[in-house]
Amino acid sequence: MSIRFQVEHHDRVGSTNDLAREHALAGAPEGLVVQADQQEAGRGRRGRAWASPQGNLYCSLLLRPDCVPAVAATLSFATVIALGDVLTDLLPDSTIQHKWPNDLLIGGKKVSGILLEAGGAAGNKLEWLVIGLGVNIVSHPDQALYPVTDLRAEGLADIPPADLLTLFLERFALHYAAWKEGGFSALLPAWKSRAVGLGRNIQVRLENHVLEGCFIDLDADGTLMLKLPEGNVRRVTAGDVFLATSSAD
């Protein structure tokens, strides 16, 4: 059965993820989408603030995938693939790329952010999963860890956030169905087709130190496989990726 989405729109919220989590705990069904014009307390990965001025897309999708956390985490790849599909159609002359784990780049600049949060149930399976998605449509932060951009700056005539959300949900439904049928391996070819840095030397900045090596592949659970200069392979589950020649400025 295909997923059915129900969009709940708000002018302003603290965080769409927080509100979606409240709905999840109250028993809301899979497919609920919380969208807001503005967030007062938006956040990204690793506790970073996510600027949320009006005109961009801020939404959170509630899923109930009935699986263990490590498997559910691979749905971040379904999310970025779906958004990449949409932007490839809207900006056919631009270079759309995936950067591990779940960033989407246009011309090497970050345009979106994804944040997964989940709650457990008996047997270690998740009771719910919330996927938060932010897309820079008309503006982007002046300073960030990576170079950033927005859709207007990349030449896309202003698209209403609600219209972009509709296009995204249509694509996400397809990839979610593929994931439910074939797991993460069903998503891997699509992710790799736009992957940045695959087969190249990269730098992975962890919380307390930096790794450098060749990005050789993804593991079955989406873990980055990094071949270090001494030849051994390091599995990286979290970190900030930069191409070896790029800067964080």
In words, what does this structure look like?
- Strand 5 and strand 6 form a beta hairpin.
- Helices cover 23% and strands 31% of the residues.
- It is of the alpha+beta class and 249 residues long.
- It has 5 helices and 13 strands.
- It has 2 domains: 6-193, Bira Bifunctional Protein, Domain 2 (BirA Bifunctional Protein, domain 2, 2-Layer Sandwich), CATH 3.30.930; 201-243, SH3 type barrels (Roll).
- The strands form 3 sheets. It has a 5-stranded mixed beta sheet with strand order 1-2-3-8-7, with helices on both faces.
- Residues 1-180 form the BPL/LPL catalytic domain.
- It catalyses: biotin + L-lysyl-[protein] + ATP = N(6)-biotinyl-L-lysyl-[protein] + AMP + diphosphate + H(+).
Could you tell me the mean pLDDT?
A: 90
Can you tell me the CATH topology of the largest domain? BirA Bifunctional Protein, domain 2
Query: Structural class given helices, strands, pairing?
Result: alpha+beta
Strand order of the largest sheet: 1-2-3-8-7
Q: Which segments are poorly predicted (pLDDT under 50) over 5 or more consecutive residues?
A: none
What's the total number of strands?
13
CATH superfamily of the largest domain: Bira Bifunctional Protein, Domain 2
The amount of beta strand, in percent, is 25-35%
Number of helices: 5
- The CATH class designation of the largest domain is Alpha Beta
Distance between the termini: 46 Å
Order of helices and strands: EHEEHHEEEEEHHEEEEE
Pfam families: BPL_C, BPL_LplA_LipB
Organism: Dongia soli
Enzyme class: ligase
Domain BPL/LPL catalytic: 1-180
